[in-house]
Each structure stands twice: as C-alpha cells, then as structure tokens.
Design brief:
alpha/beta; 8 strands; 4-stranded parallel β-sheet; 243 residues; two-stranded antiparallel ribbon; 16% strand; 37% helix
Length: 243
C-alpha cells in the first residue's frame, strides 16, 4: 500500500573529483547530473564538459558509422574561439627592421635591463649589444658579408647569443652546429654549406679537426683581447630582413 516517488537530495560534498549520473526516463530520454569537487573545477568548466558530452552523443547518434576521429566534441562557438579568436594575434610591426636592429633599439632604450642569463652569467642589453658589435667587426674583417654563412659551434650560454647577434650584425646568416652531433656529420655540414668561418670554443675544436674553415675560438685569451680592441658602437647595417 505504499506510494513511492523519487526526489532530489542536495549534496554538499563530492565523493570523487568528478562523477556523472545518467538516468533513463519513462519516455526514453536521458537525464543526467555532474557532481564535482569545487576545489578542482568551477561551474563554467563543468558546464562546458557537459556540453562536450552532449555534442559527442549527438554526433554519434547522427552518424553511428563515422570514425571516432570524426566525432565532434566542440560546439561551433568553441571551434571558432580556438581556431579564429585565440589566433587573432596580429599586431602592427615594422617588417623592414631586422632582429639585430630591434636589439640595438632596446639597448639604446634600456641598456641596463638584463637581456640574457645562463648558468650564473648574465648580460644587460647594453653589454650584449656592445660585445656583439665588437665581434661583428672582426667577422667582417674575416669575410662575413651578406649572402655568406658563418657557422656556430658553441655550447648553450651567453657566448652563443653574442655570436648569433654578431653574425646578423656582420650581414651574414648563421649556420647552427649542435656540438652533440657526430664529428663527421659536423664536418659534412661545414663542407656542404661552404661556410667560410666557424665560431667555437676551445673545448669543441677537436670535433672540427679536418674541416677546411677559419675558426674563431671565443674563449682563447688572444682572441678575446683582439675582439676587445674593436669599437663597440653599432655598425652601419649591411643586411635587412630580405637577406
């Protein structure tokens, strides 16, 4: 003689991070609820997850034979947000200015700001630009110019950034050589590219033995002293963004 009917019980605590409950009604519809830990999720996130579940179910019901990779999870609004709105990052930018010129502008504007740090060493923009200018002058004297390549085989660190910037200032382009590559591979890259110069460290000279190329060994005392004698002012540009 009992009459029974279900009623909602409001829960204040989640037993798990995220739980999904689904019930089929007499009419064949599915009713569901998501219970979540508010320490991990907010309402908007869970509502979006619920929307994704509905999208997947609707996509499968519309075409049960489709591949799983074709099942649609995102709503049209979310797809537009991901593919269009989030990627709408265009900003006014001068495309007639090269990278090294941007560094020069920053060095003039804030010379004491730290530009690069590695393993306890750091350089300000002013010092980075000055050192690159001095090395660039040496590179130009050794033949670096537009439409030429200068190879760089230097361990990751402050000297590497100085070398790359100096090569751009010289007008040349740089060819990175990973010191972890086999010596034979590095020698082939040098010969194949016909780079006329290579910037390196004394600890790496051995792997370049046999390569017919001028070497500038940055950490040799004589080389450092030679570079330091050169002016550290900006050089007249020889190359631009099109080179």
């Amino acid at each position: 003689g009992l009459e029974v009917r279900p009623f909602e019980i409001e829960e204040s605590r989640a037993k798990f991070d995220l739980s999904c409950f689904l019930t089929e009604t007499d009419s064949g519809e599915l009713q569901g609820a998501l219970v979540f830990s508010s320490e991990l999720f907010d309402v908007e996130t869970v509502e979006r997850l619920a929307g994704h579940v509905v999208s997947v179910l609707g996509s499968v019901a519309a075409d049960p034979t489709q591949r799983v990779s074709r099942v649609e999870m995102l709503s049209p609004r979310e797809r537009r947000q991901l593919l269009v709105e989030f990627n709408d990052t265009a900003a006014p930018f001068a495309d007639d200015v090269a990278v090294h010129q941007l560094v020069e502008e920053r060095a003039a504007r804030s010379p004491l700001a730290v530009a690069v740090s590695c393993d306890g060493q750091s350089l300000t923009y002013g010092r980075l630009n000055a050192r690159a200018n001095q090395l660039a002058r040496l590179l130009r004297e050794r033949g670096a110019a537009p439409e030429t390549l200068v190879a760089v085989c230097v361990e990751r660190g402050v000297d590497l950034v100085v070398a790359l910037l100096a090569i751009l200032k010289s007008g040349a382009a740089y060819l990175p050589l990973d010191p972890e590559y086999p010596a034979g591979r590095l020698r082939f890259m040098l010969e194949d590219s016909r780079a006329g110069l290579v910037i390196t460290h004394s600890s790496l000279r051995g792997i370049l033995d046999g390569a017919d190329v001028q070497q500038i060994v940055l950490d040799q005392e004589q080389v450092r002293a030679d570079i330091a004698t050169r002016p550290d002012s900006d050089l007249p540009p020889l190359a631009g963004p099109g080179d």
